[in-house]
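Reopening this one. Same input as before:
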Amino acid sequence: MQPVTPGPGQESVWDYPRPPACVASDRHVVVRLGETLIADTTAAYRVLETSHPPTWYLPRSSVVDGLLTPSRARSTFCEWKGDATYWDVLGHEGAMWSYEHPTPGFTAITGYVTCYPSAFECFVDDERVRPQEGGFYGGWITDDVVGPFKGGPGTWGW
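Same output, byte for byte:
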């Protein structure tokens, strides 16, 4: 594995910290499901972790009223953020998740929601996000982030 050298205006996921950092962003983030607007904000947080594209967390207030309902999907545990709470969106079970009582380093994202960009159309500053490979991690890949990224076949040992 050889990290890609970032160009102008880019950042390498290999320069992100471990343990991860929670960083505020005023970039324009939009989530859609087909023609339906799910969320729209300029007050998101990015969670940055070595070898992973950022995962974007949006304030629950940016989600269109009535679209989130508590899910029966089982909770999962993140070693950095704590226990996740899942939310159904328009009949899609467990489509979004949040940390209602995160660990001390992640209290800024208390109640903020995120999703897999493979399940929604996600945009950062009008750029369509590409999902992190593998289906386990929730990274959002944009042109300003370079890898290689953990998640695909053969990357679990990184």
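So the earlier flakiness isn't reproducible anymore. For the record, The CA atoms of residues 27 and 68 lie 23 Å apart.
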